[in-house]
Amino acid sequence: MTFSLDDLRRWPDVEAPDLVASDAADRLLLDESVSARREAAPGELVVIGDGYGALTLSAAADGGSGIRVHQDPLTGERALAANAHRAALTGAFASLPLSEDLVRGARVVLLRLPRSLDALRDIAQLIAAHAEPDVVVFAGGRVKHMTLAMNDVLRDSFVRLDVTHARQKSRVLVVRGARGGADPAPRRETHDGLVVCAFGGAFAGTSIDIGTRFLLAQLPELVTSGGDVIDFACGTGVVGATLALREPALRIVACDQSAAAVASARATAIANGVADRVEVVRDDMLGSRPYESASFIALNPPFHSGSAVHEGIAPRMFADAARVLRPGGELWTVWNSALRYRPALERHVGPTRQVARNAKFTVTASTRRS
After folding, report:
1. How far apart are alpha carbons 63 and 50 in whole angstroms?
2. Name one GO biological process term (predicted).
3. End-to-end CA distance of the chain
4. Which domains does the chain show, CATH number per domain?
5. Is the pTM here over 0.85, yes or no?
6. Which of 26, 23, 24 is nearest to 58 (CA)?
7. Which residues sit opposite 45 in a β-bridge?
8. Whose CA is closest to 294, among 257, 322, 255?
9. pLDDT score at 224
C-alpha cells in the first residue's frame, strides 16, 4: 500500500475541515532529514512530537524500521496507531515515554518543536544524555511558533546549530555535537503551602493559572459518597492534591491525556504527601472510567487542540463527564465567561447553576440528570 500524508486522520482527536493532520513543517522536516534517515540503521531513528503520524509513518514508508516515538497527547498516540493500521505500517515503530529508553543509541531524531521552552529543554537534555555522540537532531515547526530563545535552549545541549531556509512558513533547526545532558526532572514551586511540580510542557508550569485559582476558591466541602471524585484534565494535579489535603478521607482520580501533565500530577501528589490517595491516570477524556461511577468531577477545560483553538473540545468533555457521573452527581466547571458554555452544560449534563463569576471567569455546578 502506498502511504500518503493526505490519507492521515486526526481521530480520535477533534476532526474538522480547518484542523489538519499534517502540515508544511512535517514535509520540510522529512525533506531535510531524508539523507540522514536513509543512513540510519534499524532502531537508530527517534521521532518526538509527531502530531498524528506524519513523520513516523513517512519514515517507515521510506524504509525505516525500529522507529521509537514519543507523543505527549494520548490522542496523538492513538491516531498514529490508527493511521499505521490503515497504512499497514504497524510493526515499524514503538511508542515510548519520554525517558532514556526512547533515545538510547539514537543517531537521528526528528522533533516537532514544542511551544514550551521548558519542554524543549527537557527533550534536548535527554537526547544529549543518552543518544549517540554523533546524533543529528532535526527540529522543525511553523515559523510563527518559533523563537530565538529556542536556539539558545538547543545550544545549551549541542555544539552546532544550523538553520534551514524557510519554506511555506516553516523552518528546521539542525543540531549536532551533543554535550552534557540530563534526565528530565520536575520543577517545583510552593503556593500557600501547596507544592506544584511540573515537567516541561505541562500547562501553566509550576504556577496556578487564574481559572484554576478561581475554581479552587469555590469548591464545596466533599464527603465520601461511594462514587469517584475526579480531577478531569488535571494538568499538574493542583485540584486533586488540594482536595486530598482538604478532605483526608477522600480518594481522588486525576486524569489527563498529556504525558507531561500525568508525570507532573504524580510528582505534585508525592510532594504534598497524598500520593496514596490520588490515582493519576493518562486517559483520553474519561475513557477508562466506568459508566455512572463518579459522584463529583472538577474541570477546567482546555480550548486548544495542539496549537489550534477549537470550540468543539469542551462539549465533548461535558458529554463524557455526564456519562461517568451518577444521577445527581455534579460537574463543577470553570470557564472563560466569553465562551458561554452554560447551554452546552445544560444540554450534555443537566441543570446548571452559576456558583461564582468575576471579571473573566465563571464557575458553574451541573447536576447529572436522572
Report:
1. 18
2. methylation
3. 49
4. 5-178 (3.40.50.150), 187-367 (3.40.50.150)
5. yes
6. 26
7. 108
8. 322
9. 65
| Of residues 133, 141, 140, the one with CA closest to residue 157 | 133
Which cell numbers in the block locate residue 347? 444540554
Nearby residues of 37 by Cβ (< 8 Å), 6 or more positions away:
45, 59, 62, 64, 108, 110
- Cα–Cα distance for residue pair 365/160, rounded to 1 Å: 54
Alpha carbon distance 254, 237 (integer Å): 7
Q: What stretches of 62-111 show up as alpha helix (H) in DSSP?
A: 74-86, 100-103
CB contact set of 293 (below 8 Å; sequence gap of 6+): 227, 228, 324, 326
**pLDDT tens sequence across 297-322:** 999 998 654 444 445 789 999 999 99
51, 21 contact by CB (below 8 A): yes
Round to whole Å and give the CA distance between 316 and 14.
9
- Sorted by sequence, the CB contacts under 8 Å of residue 169 that are 6+ apart come out as 24, 142, 143, 144
State the sign of the Cα–Cα–Cα–Cα dihedral 177, 181, 183, 189. Answer: negative
CA-angle at 331, arms to 244 and 306, nearest 5°: 90
Q: What is the mean pLDDT of the chain?
A: 95
Mean pLDDT of 100-116: 98
SS3 content of the chain, % helix, strand, coil (to 5): 35, 25, 40
CA separation for the pair 87, 341 (Å, rounded): 38
Residue 174's alpha-carbon distances to 160, 178, 270, in angstroms, are 8, 12, 38
Question: CA distances (Å), 291 to each of 227, 295, 320, 366, in order?
Answer: 11, 11, 9, 17
CA 253-317-198 angle, to 5 degrees, is: 50
Cell of 177: 555535537
Which residue is listed with cell 515537567?
199
pLDDT at 270 over 60: yes
Q: What is the 3-state secondary structure (H, E, C) of 303-329?
A: CEECCEECCCHHHHHHHHHHHHEEEEE
- 8 Å CB contact between 296 and 349: no
Report the pLDDT averaged over residues 261-284. Answer: 98
Phi, psi values for residue 287, rounded to 5°? -60, -30
